[in-house]
Amino acid sequence: MKLNLTPLFAALLLAGCASVGSVDPARLPQAPAAYKTTGASDAPALTETWWQPFADPVLDDLVARALSANTSVQAAASRLAQARAALGSAQADRLPQVGATAGAGRSSTPGQLVPQPATQYSAGLNLAYELDLGGRLLQARNAAALDVQAREQLLADARLLVQANVARGYLALRALDAERDIVRSTVAAYADTLALTEKRARAGDVADLDLARVRAELAANEAEALALDRRRVELETALAVLLGEPASGFQLAPTAWTTALPTVPAGLPSELLQRRPDLAAARSQLEAARARVGEARAAWWPSLSLTVQGGGVSNELSTLLKSGASTWGVGLLGALPLFDGGRREAGVNAAQAQLDGSVIAFREQFLLALKDVEDQLGALALLQAQGEANARAVAAAGQALKLSDTRYRNGLVSQLELLDARRSELANRRAALQVRSAQYQATVGLIRALGGGWRDESVRLAAGRR
Question: Residues near 153 by Cβ (< 8 Å), separated by ≥ 6?
């Protein structure tokens, strides 16, 4: 599938080159011309409710419960609230600060022969406003706003990660239920073979060795069934944590695995990768770091503050607000540090280093995103072929077992041949089921790698219930 992501990253990372922070374009990631797994160039529409094409009401319910109670999502929402509060503080620094004062004091006038203490009342308003000559306050506000954007995108990423983990855990549990059914059916078959072998042993038709072999196979498969039961408990409790619920009170009853498998469109547009929330967050953090370089450089500018005061002072509370008691004042205060021991230069260097780190972090996140997409696209393509091969193996192994069982019951083949056929049939059925499970996991993984799902006529449920 052909992708042209170069304009995207030129817009996201090189926009604002005239701003304060400096970024070497050569350090920014270059998008590939195409994925290794190619396809058509049609562009399906985007959808946030990406799990709905799986057509599983239980999955829908689990995702909804996780989004409302998952602790990771709640923690991300809390960090977003903190960033918004910091933005409010940065915005307030750019506005005039108005305050009111009131006081009362009692004192005597020095030099009087007989001191006469007097009470003095005061009240007033004061206004202070810092003139942002170098844009320091503006850059601080811009950085705080970009922090909010990053936190919003990280919250979206946390929600997407929880959705994907719930889907993966649920689908793994349903696949495990199906595998448990296969192993239990095999246990039942071995129990039937054991009953037949015991009957023959009593008649003297088979040796004790044959009886021991069947008993060993039955016990081994019973142990495997118990191991799968233990694994199911682990998956169930992991789901409970994702849902923000106590593991002791959470239970998901076994049921038939009828979840549909969505078909991946032939072509996936570059817009799908563009909207990955973790990439968007890394971009916002990079731009915030650039703004903080500007904030640090603005510290070289002089500070200029305007103050206005007005009020009244009187010995009588009743005359405090009369015109004769009023006072006022206007002030303009400028300050320019002449020597700070290199503090401001160190601040600029630190901000530039933070910007460099943000570029590296974005590059790493971008490369990982491409790897995720390539891994899942490649896995889906290979799993399709592997599934077809497994289906042929299951059919052949089932036919071989059917023939061996009939021939064994008629005394035409040895018990070893029957046991070998049964082991082969079980192994192939489990392998086919595991490939099917891997297809679901890779589909969810691709959706996660692209930042969400897609919706288009080319996206349709797989024929029938698999």
Answer: 277, 278, 280, 281, 284
